[in-house]
Amino acid sequence: RLAEQVRTASRDTGQPCRILADLAGHKIRTGPLPDAPGVIHLRPERDRLGRLLEPARMTAMACHQASSSLPSGVDCLLLLVSGSAMPQQGEDLLCHDARGKERVLVVERVENEVITLQATQGCYFTAGNRCQSRRRRHVQGYFAGIPQSVVPLHLEIGDSLLLQSQGGPGGPALNGRPARISCTVPEVIPQLPIGQQVWVDDGKIAAVVLEQTSEGALLRITKTKPGGARLLPDRGLNFPGLALELPALSAKDLDDLGTIIPLADLVGFSFVENAGNMRSMLEALRQRQGEHLGVIAKIETASAFHHLPEILLAALGRQPMGVMIARGDLAVEVGPERLAEVQEEILWLAEAAHLPVIWATQVLEQLTKKGVISRPEFTDAAMGVRAECVMLNKGPYAVEAVHTLNDILTRMQAHQHKKFSQLRALHWGATEEPPDQWPEPPR
Asked: Which residues cross the membrane (predicted)?
């Protein structure tokens, strides 16, 4: 449906819009952690003297039978005991929270079966905490349906972490055993040599392989932020400098190609490592009559950067293609200090091969996600004018970010074309108009 909407919008506006569909590739990430009982923490707003400014609120669906899912905007269920009436607006509900503290919840509003409760004191509620009306003793119930949450692993420098080769949930250090977590691609674990660096969660945690055991690879944490770091499921794992022996395309990638080919114009080749990988992709497209699709080689690893000339030569003349500088994973692989140099070399090589480049990862990230822009983001976005395309991430302020990016790139294209400065005439002395009165670029 999304592809259909893009095609329809393109026809209606007369603006061309190509669709790029990414293959996930071998996303090497941390596995699951056990779920813990859900907790609702109500925290009233107070001023600096501790005086109440605004009570805390929660919504609950009052019912006599448990439901498998919660309606949108509802925090939990209030399961009424047999014979209990519905709470009424203005009624006080007496309860003990998860710590055994006596608390009063006031029924602020009742709409159908959804009640809004407010608290003037801090409280913690878990499933099973009971409440009863102060005035009508037969109005009783208990909280249920509070969504479970994952408890992250807390890791500090010097801690041990077992990267387990078997699937299943991990867990914290216990009774002399190290903390453990699984990996979504367990085939890589036996390939890790002693001393191999491991970067976790985009470089927030660094570790080194101490030894290989029957359960997996034992790591020692070598870097975290002060006070330690939290490790959650589905966080990226990088092994800088290690050429992993994995097939170019996963089974899921091959299945997804069948869906992508009739819908998209370009396919993103994630974690391409060498020319052999690129040839495998071209063969997979040929077998599925997808030779018309452009291939975007996503340069995400140090190995891909070192083999970039061979990767390009494997496809040049056989398939429309381009290059994406995926700066997130690439920065972890080559180091943040070298990223600036590496991305310049990729731009030069793509220019020599007459290939388009996509400048990607965290462009205008603060603006896209929070609606505010940091000063370094202006310069970073302006550097994107040297590529043919700039990629933005999703976020609630994506439309505003697109307008801002268009403004920046439109102004910069008179100064820079790809890697070459245009040496445009400067405005000082040539006009009396101050910069804030210069013509706005088209949007």
From this structure: none
Strand partners, 236: 29
Query: Residue 329 pLDDT > 70, yes or no?
Result: yes
Mean pLDDT of all residues belonging to the chain: 91
* Alpha carbon distance 205, 159 (integer Å): 11
pLDDT-wise least confident of 39-53, 142-156, 227-241, 414-428: 414-428
The candidate with the shortest Cα–Cα distance to 111, out of 129, 128, 133, 89, is 89
Give the separation between CA 112 and CA 195, rounded to whole angstroms.
Answer: 62
Q: Which residues contact 23 (CB under 8 A, 6 or more apart)?
A: 249, 253, 256, 257, 260, 267, 268, 269, 270
**DSSP summary character for residue 385:** G
Q: Helices 275-287 and 251-260: crossing angle, nearest 10°?
A: 50
Residue 213 identity: T
Report the alpha-carbon distance of residue 393 to residue 397 in Å, rounded: 10
Contact 195, 252 (CB under 8 A): no
Nearest Cα to Cα of residue 380 among 301, 327, 439: 327
Rounded Cα distance between 377 and 100, Å, is 49
Nearest in space to 358 (alpha carbons), one of 402, 330, 388: 388
Rounded distance between C-alpha atoms, residue 238 and residue 27, angstroms: 10
CA angle, 332 then 337 then 340, to 5° = 95
291: left (phi over 0), alpha (psi -120 to 50) or beta: alpha
Question: Kind and range of the H or E element at 179?
Answer: strand 179-182
Token pair recorded at residue 89: 């607006």
pTM, two decimals, is 0.79
Q: Which residues make Cβ contacts (< 8 Å) with residue 389, sequence separation at least 6?
A: 322, 356, 357, 358, 359
Q: Are residues 310 and 275 in contact, defined by beta-carbon separation less than 8 angstroms?
A: yes
Query: In the predicted model, is pLDDT for residue 286 greater than 80?
Result: yes
Cα(290)–Cα(166) distance, rounded to whole angstroms? Answer: 37
Say how far apart CA 286 and CA 168 lie, in whole Å: 37
In 3-state terms the chain splits into helix, strand, coil percentages (rounded to 5) of 25, 30, 45
